[in-house]
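Narrative summary of target 7.
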Amino acid sequence: MSAENAAARRWVPWLCCYSGARVNEITQLRASDVKLIDGIPCIRITPEAGTVKTSRERTVLLHPHLLEQGFLAFARKKRGNAPLFYSLERQRKVDRKNPTYASVGNKLAEWVRGLGIKDSTVAPNLGWRHRFKMVARTVRMDPEVRDAIQGHAPRTEGEDYGEVPPDVMLSEIRKLPKYEVAAGERRDGRQCDQRKRAEAVATS
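Modeled conformation, tokenized:
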């Protein structure tokens, strides 16, 4: 397994979980898209890196749990416009229909299915986006901030003016509960071993 694939397995689900972003918005992230704004770590989702459904860039503050796990340290190992989850050498020069970051997302979905999630009604990648919305409602996250985080269209003309201040967004992001995930293990033990190998490569 390549270091990029291992990193995608290690980080993309967590980033989708705490941002509600579309999977391709995460797999297209570059090192330069991980920033500090007013001293607060965030990711910048921008059409320049790939595709954004609304064609509008947005800032998403990083949940404290992502920082605890070491995402910022991982991202800082890359430089400039280097992609976080795929190799530039593998990027096709001209292929807008099948960009590499989309392939990474598809492979992640296949990987999740391979871990035993067979329910056809559950979309491995899109499921995080729906769950974010559901949990955000449960914790009473401000609807305007929630929509700004996910890149949804403003509900009123007034909401379309300006951006949500970083400190305001961070206070809302912190409302999301910390996910505690125990390593699942199938009878043959392969699931646990695969996860450990992926994490070992991604954090090396």
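The CA atoms of residues 45 and 58 lie 5 Å apart.
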